[in-house]
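Structure (tokenized):
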């Protein structure tokens, strides 16, 4: 019992040290951060520029935040009012202990446009955030002008559902000591460079910000458990087929699933337009921001 107790105390201290160290530099803090008081938790965002509104929605991951848009947000704000949001469970926004679902994020997008922006908005989303942006538009398409999806995930991923093994793993992650240790190990092994064609574009500062984002807040592991156990997945094929708003997909030339993903989306909604950005993989807005912005300005 003494050995077990000592081990648990040691693991608990290790978890605490890792969390404190990760957030010690406050790399995500900025003077112009604003707050939207939402019913599931306070949402942090930035507002820049003047003109028609654009909402930037980063990819949904424990290491993600509005910092994903740092290469393009200043230039966009020269012609538009740009809102860059930290999703619930991400970045500086609150991270409540709860199960995160596609419906929650879809409702967040709708509520944010209604309450904060107050007019029809062009939404630019990254990665797996595409699914709940599509769901949000299907819920109320009057809130949306255009939808621009950057490297959206496969539609077939929407068929993934939590099984018995996933529910068991989620229960283990919810424990205070062992769950925190498993989460810290998983985050420590994050290899975001694999999603970059040009590895040098992913700097040490970007890695530090991702690591900080993954450790901030009350319960960052809650989003992680919801993601890896498929609670955020949803089949959006029907919603996608019903949308009349303009939808444009941007893909990196070297994203190996790009052609299949484009075919999937266009089969469901043939009106979708697509752009391929050279010298990039999953994050063309970071790896080749000049070409990305040139192509983007054609559609805005």
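Design, position by position:
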């Amino acid at each position: 019992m003494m050995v077990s107790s000592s081990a648990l105390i040691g693991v608990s201290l290790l978890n605490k040290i890792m969390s404190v160290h990760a957030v010690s530099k406050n790399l995500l803090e900025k003077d112009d951060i604003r707050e939207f008081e939402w019913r599931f938790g306070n949402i942090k965002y930035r507002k820049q520029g003047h003109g028609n509104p654009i909402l930037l929605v980063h990819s949904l991951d424990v290491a993600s935040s509005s910092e994903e848009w740092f290469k393009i947000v200043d230039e966009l704000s020269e012609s538009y009012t740009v809102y860059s949001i930290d999703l619930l469970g991400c970045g500086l926004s609150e991270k409540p202990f709860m199960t995160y679902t596609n419906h929650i994020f879809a409702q967040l997008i709708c509520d944010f446009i209604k309450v904060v922006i107050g007019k029809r908005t062009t939404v630019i989303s990254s990665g797996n955030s595409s699914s709940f942006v599509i769901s949000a538009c299907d819920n109320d398409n009057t809130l949306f002008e255009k939808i621009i999806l950057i490297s959206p995930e496969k539609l077939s991923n929407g068929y993934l559902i939590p099984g018995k093994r996933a529910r068991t793993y989620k229960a283990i992650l919810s424990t205070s000591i062992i769950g925190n240790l498993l989460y810290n190990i998983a985050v420590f092994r994050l290899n975001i460079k694999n999603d970059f064609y040009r590895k040098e574009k992913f700097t040490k500062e970007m890695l530090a910000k991702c690591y900080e984002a993954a450790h901030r807040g009350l319960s960052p592991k809650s989003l992680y458990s919801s993601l890896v156990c498929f609670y955020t997945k949803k089949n959006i094929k029907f919603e996608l087929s019903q949308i009349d708003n303009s939808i444009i997909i941007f893909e990196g030339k070297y994203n190996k699933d790009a052609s299949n993903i484009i075919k999937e989306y266009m089969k469901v909604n043939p009106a979708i337009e697509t752009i391929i950005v050279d010298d990039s993989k999953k994050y063309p807005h970071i790896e080749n921001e000049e070409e990305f912005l040139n192509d983007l300005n054609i559609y805005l």
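Reviewer-requested clarification: The chain has a mean pLDDT of 90. The chain has one domain: 31-299.
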